């Protein structure tokens, strides 16, 4: 027990809080400036406009300077908070699992499965485990509160860095198709015609599947690429079109990695066929122990990725400590069935 206790203490002790105190100081200064700006609005009518603008501009500049100082510290704090959240999710799942064990033991005792001596022996072991899990969970929540003190809202801690704009497509070299005739919407283009079209319009041929005449490559209509695109505001991603008939579909490899003894030692590679999970030996992934139905859950795959589906189990299926009926899986999601925990990993 001492080894396990040290394990969670060491994991929490590895969370770097060095950015938090600096951020708290910066946040106090930002809050003070914001309060002064708000108070200035009430005094605006009683001071010359030039004075108001001068002081207001000074405070606004100070706020921008403080935000610039805080930016790298916030990112460092977000990285550490992500580690803390992962640990907290694990502690929450552990705490809930051991509470289920306690309730199961109490039920079995009421049904006469144990004598008093055996029940006291087992319940003492579980109560010790409950205490340990509660302590780990409470300590993680304390650390979470310290992170929140340095931010105005938890959403700031969860915010991911803005994605960089995707690079513009590069036109394919003409040499790559020098010895081929290209069919474009039923018309045949020579390499020279293609080069001339590219030099005028900077269009890039998009190759698709399907059969073409011998010596020809079938392409869709060309995609226009601006010569010097300027950054624009991010736009919502267009929905992915369904694959053309006969087109090759590529799925990213994924696997389930056991995280505790109840999940066993085997890592399961997820395939294109649905993977069944449950206590019955006929399942692709067999999980024993309390709280697991014979046919408990299933992992399916589609063009959108892998999805975990609960098959109407009595005790439910959890992803990141949240009970779900159906949930698309993302990298590093923690799946819990009964007391068994797996991590879903892509790649």
Task: Characterise the protein shown here.
The chain is α+β, with helices and mostly antiparallel strands. It is 43% helix and 18% strand. It contains 6 helices and 16 strands. The protein has a 6-stranded antiparallel sheet with strand order 7-6-16-15-12-13, covered by helices on one side. A 5-stranded mixed sheet has the order 9-8-10-11-14, with no helix packed on it. Helix 1 packs parallel to helix 4 and helix 3 runs antiparallel to helix 4. The two termini are 35 Å apart. The relative contact order is 0.09.
Beta-strand percentage range: 15-25%
Question: Quick check: average pLDDT?
Answer: 76
The helix fraction, in percent, is: 40-55%
**What structural class should be given to the helix and strand makeup?**
alpha+beta
Q: What is the radius of gyration computed over CA atoms, rounded to a whole number of angstroms?
A: 30 Å
Shape: elongated
Number of helical elements: 6
The residue ranges in which pLDDT falls below 50 over 5 or more consecutive positions are 160-189, 197-243, 245-249
Major sheet details: 6 strands, antiparallel
User: Largest sheet, order of strands side by side?
Assistant: 7-6-16-15-12-13
> Span between N and C termini?
35 Å
Write down how many β-strands occur, each being a DSSP E stretch of 2 or more residues. Answer: 16
Order of helices and strands: HHHHHEEHEEEEEEEEEEEEEE
């Amino acid at each position: 027990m001492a080894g396990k206790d040290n394990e969670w203490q060491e994991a929490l002790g590895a969370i770097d809080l060095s950015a938090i105190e600096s951020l708290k100081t910066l946040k106090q200064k930002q809050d003070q400036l914001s309060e002064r700006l708000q108070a200035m609005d009430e005094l605006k009518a009683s001071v010359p406009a030039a004075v108001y603008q001068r002081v207001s501009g000074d405070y606004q500049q100070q706020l921008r300077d403080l935000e610039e100082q805080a930016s790298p510290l916030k990112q460092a704090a977000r990285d550490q908070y992500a580690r803390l959240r992962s640990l907290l999710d694990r502690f929450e799942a552990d705490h809930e699992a051991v509470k289920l064990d306690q309730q199961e033991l109490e039920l079995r005792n009421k049904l006469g499965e144990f004598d008093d001596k055996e029940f006291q022996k087992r319940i003492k072991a579980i109560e010790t485990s409950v205490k340990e899990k509660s302590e780990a969970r409470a300590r993680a929540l304390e650390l979470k509160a310290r992170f929140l003190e340095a931010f105005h809202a938890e959403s700031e801690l969860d915010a991911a860095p803005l994605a960089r704009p995707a690079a513009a497509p590069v036109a394919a070299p003409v040499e790559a198709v020098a010895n081929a005739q290209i069919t474009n919407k039923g018309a045949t283009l020579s390499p020279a015609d293609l080069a001339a079209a590219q030099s005028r319009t900077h269009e890039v041929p998009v190759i698709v599947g399907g059969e073409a005449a011998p010596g020809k490559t079938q392409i869709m209509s060309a995609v226009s690429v601006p010569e010097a695109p300027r950054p624009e505001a991010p736009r919502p991603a267009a929905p992915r079109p369904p694959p053309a008939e006969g087109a090759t579909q590529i799925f990213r490899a994924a696997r389930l990695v056991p995280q505790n003894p109840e999940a066993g030692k085997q890592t399961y590679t997820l395939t294109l066929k649905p993977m069944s999970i449950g206590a019955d030996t006929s399942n692709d992934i067999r999980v024993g122990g309390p709280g697991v139905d014979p046919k408990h859950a299933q992992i399916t795959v589609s063009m959108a990725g892998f999805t975990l589906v609960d098959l109407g189990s009595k005790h439910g299926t959890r992803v990141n400590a949240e009970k779900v009926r159906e949930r698309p899986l993302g990298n590093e999601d923690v799946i819990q069935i009964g007391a068994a925990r797996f991590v879903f990993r892509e790649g």
